[in-house]
Amino acid sequence: MEFDVKICKMITGEEIIGNITKFEDGVLYIKKPLAIGINHQEGKLVFVPYMPYTSAVEEVLLPSSSLLHEPLAPVESLVNDYLEATEQKVKIFVPGKNIVRPVQ
């Protein structure tokens, strides 16, 4: 499977990372979507399943009208962390690199 991992910023403020499989008729298809959050106590990013209480955990369809802007490529370390997280199928995953750093 070819990977085109991107981050989507929703108009609601949510950030979703996933494998973009296609963009067709104003709809973005995202396989294995994960929401990106921040653990403020530790200053680290966390991945959590996007809408885990639905049957749409393998793929979601997002209308382009729900996006703040076009999907963007994450840094390479975040792509690697995403691929590791989706292989492990964990409920919450803390990426290995400390990408979020406190302002000094």
Topology:
Elements: E1 5-9, E2 15-24, E3 27-39, E4 44-49, E5 59-63, H1 76-88
Antiparallel strand pairs: 1-2, 2-3, 3-4, 3-5
Question: What is the CATH third-level topology name?
Answer: SH3 type barrels
Beta content: 35-45%
How many individual β-strands? 5
As a percent range, the share of helical residues equals 10-25%
Let me know the average pLDDT: 84
The geometry reads as globular
> What's the end-to-end separation, in Å?
41 Å
> Helix/strand/pairing class, anyone?
mainly beta
Architecture (CATH level 2) name = Roll
Low-pLDDT stretches are none
CATH domain class? Mainly Beta
Main beta sheet: 5 strands, antiparallel
Provide an overview of this structure:
- By secondary structure, the protein is mainly beta.
- It has one domain (5-88): Roll (SH3 type barrels).
- Helix content is 12%, strand content 38%.
- It contains one helix and five strands.
- Strands 1, 2, 3, 4 and 5 form a five-stranded antiparallel beta sheet that branches.
- It is globular.
- It starts with a strand and ends in a 16-residue tail after the last helix.
- The model has no long low-confidence stretch (mean pLDDT 84).
Quick recap of the structure?
This protein has one helix at 76-88; strands spanning 5-9, 15-24, 27-39, 44-49, 59-63.
Keywords for this entry:
mainly beta, SH3 type barrels, five-stranded antiparallel sheet, 1 helix, 104 residues
